[in-house]
Amino acid sequence: MRLNLSALICLIPAVLSIPFEGFTKRPNTCPKTPVNATRYDAKLPDPFMFANGRPVKTLSDFACRQREVSELFQTFELGAKPGNPDSVFGSISGPNLTVTVCVHGRTVSFTPTIAYPANGTAPHPAIIALGGLTIPAPSGVAIIIYNNDDIGAQLDQSSRDQGKFFELYPELGANGAMVAWAWGISRILDVLETLPEANINTKKIAVTGCSRNGKGALVAGALDSRIALTIPQESGSGGTACWRLSDYENHNASTQTASEIVQENVWFATQFDDFANTTVDMLPIDHHMLAGLVAPRGLLVIDNIGYEWLGPWSSYGCMKTAHRIFQALGVSDHLGYSMSPSHLHCSFPSNQGPELQAFVDKFLFDKISDTNFFNPAGNITFDDAQWVDWSTPHLR
Ligand SMILES: *[C@@H]1O[C@H](CO)[C@@H](O)[C@H](O)[C@H]1NC(C)=O
Ligand SMILES: *[C@@H]1O[C@H](CO)[C@@H](O)[C@H](O)[C@H]1NC(C)=O
Ligand SMILES: *[C@@H]1O[C@H](CO)[C@@H](O)[C@H](O)[C@H]1NC(C)=O
Ligand SMILES: *[C@@H]1O[C@H](CO)[C@@H](O)[C@H](O)[C@H]1NC(C)=O
Ligand SMILES: *[C@@H]1O[C@H](CO)[C@@H](O)[C@H](O)[C@H]1NC(C)=O
Ligand SMILES: *[C@@H]1O[C@H](CO)[C@@H](O)[C@H](O)[C@H]1NC(C)=O
């Protein structure tokens, strides 16, 4: 019965207008990306130079560069995030938001839950939490719990190609799980945009997650410009840490590297193995540029110095370099960095509460708040000169 209904739903023409998030629709005024964009670079690659060597001089160049960087991430690391499905439908019943997506006659449904705030006025801002909420729920904000494992499984290597995304797109079986999760979040937004009874303000959406799901939160925020605020928590290597820096940090400490991560799980596309197994220095990207895809939107990075495996130095240096991108756009205070002294992984120290609230106030409530902070813990320092050989322009 349910299947028949879904099949019927799939025959109804798409009624939604869904912004295209894939990379094939790059404006033709943007420079063309070379067929082979790989290039040896032991330092952090220049976010302000196109893959063809042309410099980024203006804000509109930078918009093109972001398209290119998104394409490069999808090509080399994540796998492709598909654009518009044939149709997307949604309904809400109590806390259950059912999202039904149809592609080429195939259908999947998934059901995130919405917890509405005791306070505040509808439509509410919302935080979409991958796998469960690990930061305190701010007052007045709805919490949407998203079971990302259901969309792209992440048990271990056996999870390759498993999950609802892959039922819908069997031809994308080499994709990483994270791009599948990001795709699912975009579909939640599609539904919320056309479902006024859900009472969610889709212009005021944040995404968050911790650890592996923090990596996923960053990818989701990077690949959908409708997300106002991205909050990766203790996301480590493959998240807010840079591959090149994690390799370096691993010389002194036991830090997760690309070569280890591709053995552990299926977060990345299979084509990333080539780089992970040989050298990440051939990648035309690193994760300062993933964070740069979020700009000029809000990005609050929550880190914990206590776990060498997460690469705290790598994450700090990577985000310090990403900060240059926000500076170039004149929105230095849209990237906040908050690292705490050692504590239990994915617990949230209360002294980071004010920093979280400042970002929530600015990006979910349009309040004036001071988000101009960049706070490492311990004695962490980062030698820019060793890792960055480009300068930061002022883009207009
Ligand atoms: C791509 O270009 C790089 C740098 O020029 C070169 O080392 C690499 O072999 C090329 N790869 C392919 C597949 O042509
Ligand atoms: C929401 O979903 C849960 C789990 O499937 C179910 O038990 C509950 O009855 C649903 N609530 C409503 C109001 O639909
Ligand atoms: C509701 O708002 C009031 C006033 O802003 C605040 O004191 C209270 O803690 C809020 N309650 C909840 C549940 O967020
Ligand atoms: C690793 O240790 C060396 C020598 O002790 C030091 O110079 C270097 O800065 C350290 N690197 C990191 C990333 O901690
Ligand atoms: C990468 O290395 C692992 C472990 O040695 C191996 O199983 C895998 O096939 C390699 N992948 C590629 C693309 O070289
Ligand atoms: C910072 O450096 C000082 C002096 O080297 C050392 O005593 C202290 O333990 C360090 N603090 C942290 C949190 O690593």
UniProtKB/TrEMBL annotation:
Cleaved signal peptide residues: 1-17
Alphabetic keyword roster: Hydrolase, Lignin degradation, Serine esterase, Signal
MF GO annotations: carboxylic ester hydrolase activity
Domain 4-O-methyl-glucuronoyl methylesterase-like: 99-330
Enzyme class, spelled out: hydrolase
Any one of the GO BP annotations: lignin catabolic process
EC number: 3.1.1.117
Keyword Hydrolase belongs to the record: yes
Keyword Nucleus part of the UniProt annotation: no
Reaction equation(s) it catalyzes: a 4-O-methyl-alpha-D-glucuronosyl ester derivative + H2O = 4-O-methyl-alpha-D-glucuronate derivative + an alcohol + H(+)
Family recorded in the similarity comment: Belongs to the carbohydrate esterase 15 (CE15) family.
Protein name (record): (4-O-methyl)-D-glucuronate--lignin esterase
Origin species: Aureobasidium namibiae CBS 147.97
